[in-house]
Here is the input.
Amino acid sequence: MYIVKAEVNQVEKIVDMSVRAFETDVGVGGAKGDCPPEFDSVEWHKQMAREGHLYQAMTGKDLVGAAIVFLDEAEKSVYSGRIFIDSVYHRKGYGIRLMDCIEKNFPWAKEFNLDTPCWNERTNAFYKRLGYRIIKVEDGFIFYRKRKSEPNTIRNFT
Here is the structure.
């Protein structure tokens, strides 16, 4: 798997994938409609692509997922605002590979940050498994951080 910046012409496929991915959250603690803001918005995803934050996750020529990534080179940090894998690829290791790609794609970063809803059993277990540590809980979200100096449990996966 590898990640590349998404082009605006890929956004509709990515949004379809986002809808399929986040609709599965009902099975992991979410209520119907418990989806991230703009998860189904073509315009918002186009804006993220134009600003260089939208990355597509590729396996060969197949689009399997995407991530919204914000870089802060001055602070040497990466914030994953959202990651998702198309539901047809769930539970096959693609999420692990996507997180590994994000970490490897920005070798200058010293830390990786993200957040996820408290109710989402799947994502909370997933990030803990990958070595992310809880830094705070606020307004129904758990905020995680992983520092490069901490052991990485996913390097040998790919």
